[in-house]
Amino acid sequence: MDAQSRGQADDIDPADQWVLNPQTGNYELRLDRSSRQSTGSRSTGASPRSTGRRRGPSGDAAPTTDVPEQRARRAARAGGAGGRGTPPTGPGRRKRKPQKSRKKKAMLWTGGILACVLVVGSGLGYYVYERLNGNLNTVDVGDAGSKGITKDGPVNILLLGTDKRTGSGNEGYGDKGSSGHADTTFLFHVSEDRTNATALSIPRDLITDIPDCPTKQADGSTKIVRGSDGVRFNESFGVGGRDPGCTMRTIKQITGVPVDHFMMADFNAVKTLSTAVGGVEICLAKPIKDKESKLNLPAGPQKVEGEDALAFVRNRHGLGNESDLDRIKQQQQFIASMIRQMKEDTLGNPKKMFALADAATQALTVDSAIGDIPKLTALAEELGKIDIKHISFMTVPVVDNTDGATVILDKVKAPQVFSMIQNDVSFTEVKKKESAAKSKQAALLKGPRADASDVRVDVYNGSDTQGAAQMTLNWLQNDEGVLKSTNKSNAPEKTATTTLEYAPNQADQARKLADLMGLPAAALKPGTENAEGTEAMVLTLGADFKGAGVPITGPAKVPDVDKVEADKQVCAK
Known about the structure:
Shape: globular
Strand order of the largest sheet: 7-20-15-8-9-10-21-29
Number of helices: 13
Helix content: 25-40%
Distance between the termini: 48 Å
Number of strands: 29
Structural class: alpha+beta
Strand content: 15-25%
Radius of gyration: 26 Å
């Protein structure tokens, strides 16, 4: 649906028609009557805009912003018409607070080498709703992610930038003829209380194992793409038909953190989005003059957009040791700067917000669980609660591999970082979050304890330690008196963290076992249905297993890793 079919002139930007209503504090769509045409409307015998009135917040009459086609379509939707989403209904708009509502309308994400704000809300006109909704591309990743928007727990989003050569002028980047790989990847973790977030970069050259991956085909069938051992992480997408769900599964296997949703963009998105925000401010400690990318930038602060923005985030020459790890730092700084700019300059400006939302939705592919504007709006409300000073960017701790071209996990620091995210501990407010984690654990463990002799538990080994289940079983039976315990051998798959699954009527047993093993709050997984008869709890030992009888807890302090805070400008070196 375009401006002409709505009876508007082609040269009118719909964003220009949004004005602030001082009575409600909301931006409302005001269509100039003089621009309407007597012919050309999609409805037969188009009539003038309704002169009906609705009551304002103080009881005074306020002008309605609906037009006949909007009301007809909304009524049809209310009557059960299908579609990918349901636009706002009713003759009036819901009252919102002037300042707070603007923050809640912002949805922030980092799509590989970009950050973007999608601005949506209950005040959007039907034109804007249809435009943005029609822009989105979706992929069904099956059970790799969540089915809905999580509001009562942490949210983990895969932000994936591929090296696919789409768009004019992108022939010099990425692999020729490639369908795209996981070129730039972030695991964006949003805390349960929505006070902080961590964007964890995963190097594309990290050597890892990629699990088998069920992928949805165009005909609705499911194809299993076989996994690979000891390959680069970037092969988790694109190779052999792997979709973003495969990357989500790989990240879970590496970090022990389940991924709820994904957002994916390619090279062209960096150019369109950096242009939509009016350029992104960067800072260079020294000039960059690169013949390959034709990037020629002086030292100091400056703005880049379009081709220069893409060249900047792809460049590795003249920085550090010119490795991909140095380029990741540069990308993190670029994204942090874009986040600051959007918060300071874009929010509250309807024209800029619309332009950015339009560019973002055209650039992105998302999972089907968030594949329309209402669902993205729900996610926006969760992400919009985070203060940018509590958004941290960091890279998975790695060390050089023996080949000199790839990297492997740092066996000491990487598990500490993963444990921080698993236990929902903030990298910016660690003391506060440690206290919150302890409070949560105390709440879960509050109540009576069963006797050790009454605890029933099946032990699975999902760790890298051979014989861990038997070692734990021996310790439980011989040292702690948990005689009703059984070694169930290896878990179906390896896991990064130890978990204890139990039914509501086994809570007293779970508390006792948690006391014995020193389990953190994140390890306790209460179910919803009571156990029957002699059904046992399920203890799955993870990579955090350090030995039978050794307490399993989160890190006591923030690991010594480099990080970038979103509210601070750092000059690329």
